[in-house]
Amino acid sequence: MHPSEVLFQGQRQPLLLPVCDHYAGSEKLMRKSMALQQELGPLFDITFDCEDGASAGREREHAELAASLLRSGDNAFGRIGARLHDVGSEHFSRDVETVVGAAGHALAYVVLPKVEGVADVLRAQEIVNRAAAAAGRTPDNPLPLHVLIETHGALREVFQVAALPQVECLSFGIMDFVSAHYGAIPDTAMRSPGQFTHPLVVRAKLEMVAACHAYDKVPSHNVTTEIKDGAVIVDDARRAAREFGFTRMWSIHPGQIRPIVDAFTPRLEDVDAAARILHAAIAADWGPIAQDGRLHDRASYRYYWTVLQRAKLAGLALPETAAALVNQPESIQWPST
Fold first, then answer.
1. Which listed residue, of 29, 31, 119, 221, carries a Cα 20 to 30 Å from 251's Cα?
2. What is the rounded distance in angstroms from the CA atom of residue 85 to the CA atom of residue 60?
3. Distances (CA, A) of 36 to 29, 221, 294
4. What is the 3-state secondary structure (H, E, C) of the chain?
5. Contacts of residue 175, Cβ cutoff 8 Å, sequence gap at least 6
6. Helix pair 254-264, 230-242: axis angle to 10 deg
7. Confidence (pTM)
8. CA-CA distance, 251 to 22, in Å (whole number)?
9. Strand partners for 170
């Protein structure tokens, strides 16, 4: 049997999305991001920003631009989403009508900012689904929702939000979260190293990540405001992935994309080890094995199978043995070799 069939036995497998979510606001940056995605491939998602990206008084025009670009041939991989205005804004319904109603078939997801809890998500979901249905999306293919956790209410109900089936990703909005404390948290907690050490910020990140992993959703780390110092970007991405359990991260500058992708991509030695362990597991008919003096069973096999999946998603050139594992179709007989 295929590894995923053996290891998960009908259970939902961990959801994997491109590890970088690149935000683009202006038309120039939107088009530049699309060109870069065509060059590099779908290693990163693009989020058109209809909230902060729209000039005051030109919200409708900005939403129309986003819809037009989504429908264009430059949306080559179908991995572009849109951040809408918050559900309490006068512009939210118009964003939904313009972007989802006109380009719902081409959208990868919509991002919901500043929700105060699960009720706001459900309210937004209902409006989004009506527009998506009018655009041709069927109930068995609903438009995924990405929810920003940046308010006290959203953090309080984060497990309930993560449990919603249509939600596939939660993102931490560090600037709004810190600002919501009205000076009780210093502005140094909006950037490194404070964002990884301040107790209230650390607690919020860990709560959100725990909720995501409890319901097989993707936790996305907040933006790094540093756009010139590559070492800071790399360090932030590595800490987010290795210390806090995030599996995705925002980018706000094209120069941040590659460092984020690299930081979240499994190392080649880890991929090689995963391939060796899984081949030995197949030879043992998925029973326990000893490899390099360590015991492995199906619990660790699930971990190493995910390593291979993440490497493939990141476009890593896999060793031959690893490629053979992840590229085979399911429901085939695997030889015990």
1. 119
2. 11
3. 10, 22, 43
4. CCHHHHHHCCCCCCCCCCCEEEEECCHHHHHHHHHHHHHHCCCEEEEEECCCCCCCCCHHHHHHHHHHHHHCCCCCCCCEEEECCCCCCCCHHHHHHHHHHHHCCCCCCEEECCCCCHHHHHHHHHHHHHHHHHCCCCCCCCCCEEEEECCHHHHHCHHHHHHCCCEEEEEECHHHHHHCCCCCCCHHHHCCCHHHCCHHHHHHHHHHHHHHHHCCCEEEECCCCCCCCHHHHHHHHHHHHHCCCCCEEEECCHHHHHHHHHHHCCCHHHHHHHHHHHHHHHHCCCCCEEECCEEECHHHHHHHHHHHHHHHHCCCCCCHHHHHHHCCCCCCCCCCC
5. 150, 190, 222, 223
6. 40
7. 0.90
8. 4
9. 147, 219
Q: Could you tell me if 66 and 96 are in contact, meaning their C-beta atoms sit under 8 angstroms apart?
A: no
**Candidate from 48-52, 132-136, 161-165, 324-328 with smallest mean pLDDT:** 324-328
pLDDT in tens, 101-156: 999 999 999 999 999 999 999 999 999 999 999 999 998 999 999 999 999 999 99
CA dihedral of 190, 195, 200, 206, whole degrees rounded to 10: 130
d(CA 17, CA 79): 10
Q: Report the alpha-carbon distance of residue 304 to residue 302 in Å, rounded.
A: 6
Q: Which two tokens stand for residue 99?
A: 């972007």
Could you tell me if 85 and 92 are in contact, meaning their C-beta atoms sit under 8 angstroms apart?
yes
Q: Which two tokens stand for residue 264?
A: 């979240």
CB 288 within 8 A of CB 328: no
| Contacts with 75 (C-beta within 8 Å, 6 or more apart), sequence order | 34, 69, 106
Sign of the four-CA dihedral 319, 322, 326, 332: positive
Which tokens in the block code for residue 102? 């006109």
